[in-house]
Amino acid sequence: MKKNVNISLYDRILKRSFDILFSLVGLSLTGIIIIISYIIATIDTKENGFFTQERVGKDGKRFKVIKIKTMKSNINFNTTVTTKSDPRITKSGEIFRKLKIDELPQLINVLKGDMSFVGPRPDVPEIMETLKEEDKVILSVRPGITGPATLKYREEEKILAQVDDPEKYNEEVIFLDKVEINKKYIREYSFIKDIKYIFRTVFNHEINDEERGFKI
Q: Which Pfam families does the record associate with it (predicted)?
């Protein structure tokens, strides 16, 4: 496992302190939204309103990511990716996904230290096991709720809905591009950029190809 040598001890402490403080603030402000969304999701899916899934985090450590459930799990659908027209998505799930409400419980993951506000998105073990050795540097930081790759592919479901083989396109194009973006994020890490990524996420601003240099 390649260790990250680009983020100073000061920046690591600053980043973690920010995560703890603002995850607490976020949970206090959105707690009622999470509870109401959980109840709605439970009724709509007739299952547990929380969706948990094993993901790979910092240094390859596995953890359970927490989200509001937006899809029914009792529908047989042979794919590991989600597209805009996925029949598993519930009516309430469409709204939760559009407003990103389903992501709010990840504040718990941030508070616990599984995740950070900004970083590479955590993926499932089966996908992360395909990483080349030189790409494993993305595991040297905590995965994030948002980040440059997440912003660029904010409309990922729409993109996948337009290709013939969404799963193949995700593995051969999108995932590899995200890896390169995340490697650059780590090489050129800046706490100020983290703050800007958060603001871009809140105000729904995507990152396009010309902005991949992160001159923000």
A: Bac_transf (PF02397)
Percent of the chain with pLDDT over 70: 87
Q: How many CB atoms lie within 10 A of CB 105?
A: 21
pLDDT of residue 94: 93
Asked if residue 2 belongs to a domain, the reply is no
Residue 167 lies in a domain: yes
Long-range contacts from 10-16, C-beta under 8 angstroms, 24+ separation: 11/189, 11/191, 14/191, 15/116, 15/118, 15/191, 15/194, 16/113, 16/116
Among 3-12, 80-89, 177-186, 191-200, name the one with the lowest average pLDDT. Answer: 80-89
Domain-located, residue 1: no
Distance CA 23, CA 27 (A): 6
Give the Cα-Cα-Cα angle 126, 45, 87 (nearest 5 degrees): 65
The pLDDT value recorded for residue 208 is 53
